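Data availability (excerpt). The following record was deposited with the supplementary files.
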Amino acid sequence: MSVRTKVMLAGANGSLGQQVLKVLLDSTSPSFDVSILSRGSSLDLGSQVHAYKTDYSDASQIAKILEGQDILISTIRSSPTSDVVPDDILLSAAIMARVPRFFPSEYTLDITHPSTAEIASGSGLVPKIALVERLAREGKEGRIEWTTLVCGGFLDWGLQNGFSGFHIKERKATLLDGGKQMVTGCTLPFIAACVVRAITLRDEVKNKRVKIAEVRYSGLEILHLLEEATSTTFEVEDTSTEENLVKARKSGNMLQITIAVLKRLNYNGSGAAYFEDGLEWGGKAIARKTLKEIVDEAVLVCDT
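Predicted structure:
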């Protein structure tokens, strides 16, 4: 009988965390003994999962919970307005508890790209960049193994809630910088599948930033598919990500600045959000949806 890998998942209540939890529980080869850390669980977990409560402020307290775990996966969304950086505390706790592997909650565009450093000041990306530097040090010193999945935008999530600029219910669209730049993105289930795939590829992903991508797209392509799926001509406006960033900085609101920085990097053609190699990562072991399938599903969700 094979030994089940012990995995602690932090942030299982979130949009991505729920998907990662599902894939972990459904996996049979390998199989996992799953526990979760949360501020207060609202999930019906039954007997399959061990749940532990924490406020992510005390590394020593979390370290006691982590003892005996093989892997710590974080899917926590850090608040750009909070002084507490959960992943930094989780990393300290994992090292204290001698957890061999850590997957931090970055799950965004490439924050190590030169264009990111140019405009990240004042945004919630700054602590994430600091964590990248700390991870490199800890990994080099052999204190822990880490793997960061760099996935670009959550395409399904962004289409369904309007974050991407497409308001499907209202049949309205805001194209960013003309909607011409090609970017790559992922659905939440795809990212979750990649997490589990990465677990099985320990040597290949050890102390590495792994770029993944499900589809490539432009804003204009999404607009065309939305109009095709709804048999409607959308009301369209164009906006400049550079101008939006200037406005956000003037507001002084860190959340607005962070969103503006992310959208600027995603659509300005810098390459911080386009991962050609990521489109091949995982090969046939991971199913990829087409852009049309993702758009059609978003329309179904929004119009139901």
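Summary of structural features: The longest strand covers residues 32-38.
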